[in-house]
Amino acid sequence: MTAGIHARLDRIGTDGKFLTIPMDHGLTLGAVRGLVDIEGTIDAVTRGGADAVLTQKGIAPRVHANKNDAGYIVHLNGSTAGGPDANDKRITGTVEAAVKAGADAVSFHINVGSASEPEQITDLGELTERASELGIPVLAMAYARGPGVDGANPERLAHAVRLAEELGADVVKTGYSGDAESFTQVVDATRLPVLIAGGEPAGDSASLEAVRGAMDAGASGVSMGRTVFQHDDPEAMTRAVSGVVHDDRTVEEALDRAGLAVEA
Ligand SMILES: CC(=O)[C@@H](O)[C@H](O)C[C@H](N)C(=O)O
Ligand SMILES: O=CC(=O)COP(=O)(O)O
User: Fold this and answer.
1) For the chain: N or C, fewer Cβ within 10 A?
2) Which residue in 17, 24, 72, 176 is the catalytic one?
3) Which atom of ligand 2 has the smallest separation from the CA of 24?
4) Is the CB of 24 under 6 A from ligand 2?
5) Which ligand sits closest to the CA of 73?
6) ipTM of this model?
């Protein structure tokens, strides 16, 4: 790993743990709740302890003044939920454009098992080479998604995270398999730091239980979007997630210290 990649990984994480809040969903879903006033949400989640926020490059002018010195990741592909194939992520920018936008790292989504998987493999392989030349870390969002693919199947997830390492990513995010025991298989499939996505908001306790389970399995943090940015209090929810990721708290302690109710 080059010195540049090492230094920039420290910009998007803390002591090898990562609490990233992705807010690229405006491309996928539109200006959904939490992203209309994205400036306010970025301010809230970074006050709550997010290590980094993540957007598409066009949103960069709305990020920097509001991110309270957190790291910034530019996402370099996308698709819309209503398009012909939501799993067919197409390139939306270059590493150079991300650097120009002030990025500390770039991210790229790959749907392992989708009809467009071959193109996404080529695209990610090319991206990691260019990013490595420039000393920019790559966060691969490696999902198990496609016709007939169970996105929570641990073997599928293990393959997805390993594929990200094989293609030269520095950090990988994937779906959660549902329990710590099965997620161990996912974490063990790669030497990369493994983060989990949040998915559709499932309630504070359930979401934090997933984070706790992933961390117990050896994960290195989260890239958690809607669960946090669509929360009534994104700052408090970020604080709660940080309690588990960075302070190794139980779900109950983390919620309590963040001032959130412990649900039954
Ligand atoms: C909206 C979703 O289903 C998310 O999991 C996205 O696929 C992940 C990504 N942030 C995106 O919006 O492309
Ligand atoms: O970029 C998207 C993610 O990393 C995950 O978003 P989610 O809303 O937590 O699924």
Assistant:
1) C
2) 24
3) 1
4) yes
5) 2
6) 0.92
Q: Say yes or no: CB of residue 22 within 6 Å of ligand 1.
A: yes
Q: Whose CA is nearest to atom 4 of ligand 2?
A: 223
Question: With a 6 A CB cut-off, is 199 part of the ligand 2 pocket?
Answer: yes
Whole-model pTM over 0.95: yes
Per-residue confidence of the chain (264 residues) as pLDDT tens digits?
799 999 999 999 999 999 999 999 999 999 999 999 999 999 999 999 999 999 999 999 999 999 999 999 999 999 999 999 999 999 999 999 999 999 999 999 999 999 999 999 999 999 999 999 999 999 999 999 999 999 999 999 999 999 999 999 999 999 999 999 999 999 999 999 999 999 999 999 999 999 999 999 999 999 999 999 999 999 999 999 999 999 999 999 999 999 998 876
143 has catalytic annotation = yes
Is 143 annotated in a binding site? The answer is: yes
63, 42 contact by CB (below 8 A):
yes
The number of the ligand 1 atom at minimal distance from the alpha carbon of 197 is 5
Question: What number does CATH give the domain 3-257?
Answer: 3.20.20.70
| 218 marked ligand binding residue | no
